[in-house]
Design brief:
about 20% strand, alpha/beta, 5-stranded mixed sheet, single chain, 6-stranded mixed sheet
């Protein structure tokens, strides 16, 4: 695959977690509770609506209610968060479920313990300049396509969409475009012709007309049309060893997150937005509310994995992933997630 990288700050410092405060757009914050229940959770883009349950749970005080001391650490991409987890620098990741499948193919055991959504919540956007020429993934050939980073879930999904349309990874250039302002800048400068991103970036691009929606994976209908079924995405995943040895802590986390998922499904976007840090909305509060409105339907109210969706995620990765494809028939999908904790939390 050809990889072109747009300038982004070095990520190494993000992984130095011990003794650090949680970083978010507002600065530092941390949960409260007993030190024995201290949990560090990496979030692959805390300001993204798809990962909103992480910060919202903290804002609502649900971690504290469970007696947990949770530190949320914001990272630019899910693959960075996964790296920290594998290096034992964090106990959990709020990121895409598909990393658990990818890691099993590489001999590592990770499990989704609370499934936030059964659809990606991603949108393939086309720049204003290319809107007339890129109308389907078949038009990706010869184009510069933006993803969060190489090896990220947006990269996985882009490879699948292109490959399913007969376009190989050698036929297009993958560009590390990040999210939010870096993604928008890449699209406006011609650094990317199209790319995969989430709200609130989608809302900003559509409002200004700088980008147009090509494929919408924020809904079940759009996801099934593009990916052949559901595709479980944002989740809390942890190492299998940690889950097995810290069941009490994992249950408390599940209790907190499932309560938050209930809050999301039972409240309107304006109420949810009001609970989030003020600077997540930036200078346009109405646009932030719209971004939550457009994406909140993706969230799973129970936190329980859809088994058929998990199978479809394996089928998607098995078609193109160099790690998963040769091992697709030996992957034990039931080891990539557990419904034990979410089921107990909602009962």
């Amino acid at each position: 695959m050809k990889i072109r990288v747009l300038a982004l700050p070095a990520l190494a410092a993000v992984l130095v977690l011990t003794g650090c405060q949680t970083q978010n757009k507002s600065g530092t914050s941390s949960g409260s509770g007993s030190s024995s229940d201290k949990v560090t959770i990496m979030v692959g883009g805390a300001a993204k609506v798809i990962y909103m349950p992480a910060k919202l749970t903290e804002q609502l005080g649900y971690f504290k209610d469970q007696g947990l001391n949770v530190e949320l650490v914001d990272t630019p991409a899910g693959v960075t968060a996964e790296t920290a987890l594998l290096a034992n620098q964090a106990q959990g990741v709020v990121g895409f479920y598909d990393h658990t499948i990818d890691m099993q193919a590489k001999g590592k055991c990770l499990q989704s313990v609370v499934q936030f959504a059964n659809v990606p919540g991603e949108v393939e956007m086309v720049s204003k300049a290319q809107a007339g020429t890129i109308k389907t993934p078949a038009d990706f050939k010869g184009r510069k396509l933006g993803v969060t980073s190489a090896g990220s879930s947006t990269d996985f999904l882009t490879q699948y969409l292109a490959g399913n349309a007969g376009v190989s990874t050698a036929d297009y250039t993958t560009v590390k475009a990040g999210a939010d302002s870096t993604f928008i800048a890449a699209m406006n400068s011609g650094g990317i012709d199209a790319g995969m991103t989430t709200d609130p970036t989608v809302a900003r691009l559509t409002k200004t007309g700088e980008g147009q929606i090509l494929l919408d994976l924020r809904t079940e209908e759009g996801t099934k049309a593009a990916l052949g079924g559901l595709y479980p995405a944002s989740s809390l995943y942890m190492s299998c060893d940690y889950v097995a040895s810290h069941k009490d802590v994992v249950q408390k986390l599940a209790n907190a997150f499932v309560k938050t998922l209930g809050f999301i499904t039972s409240n309107d976007a304006a109420t949810i937005a009001a609970k989030m840090p003020a600077d997540y909305a930036g200078t346009d509060k109405d646009l932030y509310v719209k971004s939550i409105t457009d994406s909140k339907g993706m969230f799973n109210a129970t936190g329980v994995m859809d088994a058929k969706g998990a199978e479809n995620a394996l089928a998607v990765l098995g078609k193109f992933s160099p790690a998963v494809k040769p091992k697709k028939d030996t992957i034990d999908i039931t080891k990539t997630y557990t419904t034990e904790f979410a089921t107990a939390a909602k009962s």
